[in-house]
Amino acid sequence: MTDTTPPAPADTPEALVGQLVDLLDVEQIDVDLYRGLRKPGGVGRVFGGQVIAQALQSAQRSVDGKDAHSLHAYFMRPGDEDFPIIYRVVRDFDGGSFATRRVIAMQQGKPILNMAASFQRAEGGLHHQDVIPDVPMPEDLRDEQALRLAHIDEIPEKLRAFFLRARPIELRPVLPRSLTRPEPTEPVSHSWFRAAAPLPDDPALHRAVLSYASDMALLGTAMLPHGKSWLTDRMQTASLDHAVWLHEAFRADEWLLYTTDSPWSGHARGFNRGRIFTRDGRLVASTTQEGLMRMRDKP
Q1: CA of 100: how far to CAs of 118, 192, 257, 276, in Å?
Q2: At what angle do helices 203-213 and 13-24 cross, to 10 degrees?
Q3: Phi/psi of residue 163, nearest 5 degrees
Q4: What does the DSSP assignment read for 47-88?
Q5: What is the second-level CATH architecture of the domain 13-121+139-295?
Q6: What is the DSSP string of 205-227?
Q7: Are 216 and 49 in contact, with CB atoms under 8 Å apart?
Q8: Which of these is catalytic: 54, 60, 107, 215?
Q9: Model's pTM, two decimal places?
Q10: pLDDT digits over 24-64, tens only?
Q11: Active site residue 215
Q12: How far apart, in whole angstroms, are the C-alpha atoms of residue 244 and residue 226?
């Protein structure tokens, strides 16, 4: 029997990224059936980006000669860090140019996520793209970890370990905002991100790491005009769905600019859009997400 006990958490960037690579290296346990390992040190609810990335990796393992260009996922139940996740792949279509897959993520016999992904054989075509926003380069910005450490006294003691945990994705916000004293602002945000250490050269892995990181900055954008954050008393948040379009080749261990905006919120939901650029201005991915954004009657 395979041991699914996660290894102890690492603390160096290289070790953290190595554990992320292992986390996304889903294990095939039967034809079109895969198992995703648990996150080292994970407690409580599974990070949604992990489920998306492992589901994408499962789908990518079932396709030859075509690259993933889009995925659309719906979250149904929160994942539990106490158990591995089983991914069942359904081969809906294999054509000359395109292929489609469905993936069902399961825990304890219940689905926690459904995802559809589309794959395309490489070809040329008419091209245009948005222009990258004019923002400072990552070298001119502070790492989010350093920013959080500078304000650790503002964070409830029971959340400090989670708040300061080392992560395999390095994030540098263009305009840092307080999580404990947020002020209403325009619903637009920009952050640079990359894997904290070099990744292997497998393009499928880089697509999975970008999909993993794409869940880190979207939902908070819809809270900006309301002066709220996930630390706001009585605020309940959760991802409801998530979509990624992969436009061009990229490396997830090189700086990428994630620019997000939120054109609407209401009915306890917030809608968010994202664009991901390389530092030389290529638009390599686009994202959307709707999330739960509910003010509860009690804390």
Answers
A1: 4, 31, 29, 24
A2: 100
A3: -65, -35
A4: PHHHHHHHHHHHHHTT-SS-EEEEEEEEE-S--BTTS-EEEE
A5: Beta Barrel (2.40)
A6: HHHHHHHHHTTSSSGGGGGGGGT
A7: yes
A8: 215
A9: 0.93
A10: 999 999 999 999 999 887 788 999 999 999 999 999 999 99
A11: yes
A12: 26
Q: Does 253 qualify as catalytic in the annotation?
A: no
* Catalytic position from the list 19, 60, 239, 286: 239
**CA–CA gap between residue 47 and residue 63 (Å, rounded):** 26
pLDDT tens, position by position, 245-283: 999 999 999 999 999 999 999 999 999 999 999 999 999
Distance (Å, rounded) from C-alpha 256 to C-alpha 108? 36
d(CA 39, CA 35): 13
Does the annotation mark 239 as catalytic? yes
What type of residue is 227?
G
- Tell me the pairing of strands 283-295 and 269-278: antiparallel
